[in-house]
Amino acid sequence: MGLSTTLTAKLRKPGSSNEARRIRREGNLPAVFYGEKSEPKSLYLSYKEVRNAFLNDPGNRSLFTLSIDGEGTYPILVREYQISPVTRRLLHVDFLRIDPDKKVTVRVPLTLKGKALGVEKGGQLQQSEREIPVKGLPADIPSVIEADVTSLSLGQTMHMSQVLLPETLTLVKTVDLPVALVSVPKGLKTEESAEASAAASPAAAPAKAAKADKKK
Q: How many distinct structural domains can be found in the chain?
């Protein structure tokens, strides 16, 4: 759940880009901590600790507890982070202090659960969205949201509004984007098209029989 992981940070003096590079060379990560009624604080954290929390933490990867040496412990939201376009390493992180009693909006990883009915009939399941935006109290934000696609048949699509959320969460969306669909491989008919073909077939048979009678 949200805030389950604590990141440990130390204060640093605001410096130049050379200072930030020195921090990185020492295996640390420069960061900034913002509070609603306080001046921003320049920090540094263990790069390895932050990377593991972002990639491997079982809790939500947007919400953490930040422990600043000599200052205190705060619930925080990852506001922004920078990644090197060349090495793909984290370069800098901005943390925003939040109120645990106020709802926040975050994007939570979305996973698909179950084997879609359409897959059993030869279709291919495709996931078009990897995250879903939700709003809730920090402690109620899950590490992942599961969408059950078992009933999804050939040619059918699941949208964000169809994903079942816990009662403590609200979906935040401007567009009801598709999150998953069962595509139909070439040459394979959907159930709707198969039913249409079957309905047309009985009518075709009498017509051919009548044509044959006229020839007689």
A: 2
Residues facing 178 on adjacent strands: 159
**pLDDT tens for residues 137-154?**
998 998 889 999 999 999
Residue 154 to residue 188: CA distance in whole angstroms: 9
Same-domain pairing of 123 and 93: no
Alpha helices in the chain (DSSP H): 17-25, 47-56, 117-120, 191-215
CA dist., res. 165 & res. 19, Å (int): 45
Measure Cα distances from 154 to 56, 110, 146, 179, 186 in Å: 34, 21, 21, 15, 12
122 with 52, same domain: the answer is no
CATH classification at residue 66: 2.40.240.10
Domain that holds residue 169: 105-186
- As a whole number of angstroms, the distance between CA 44 and CA 24 comes to 9
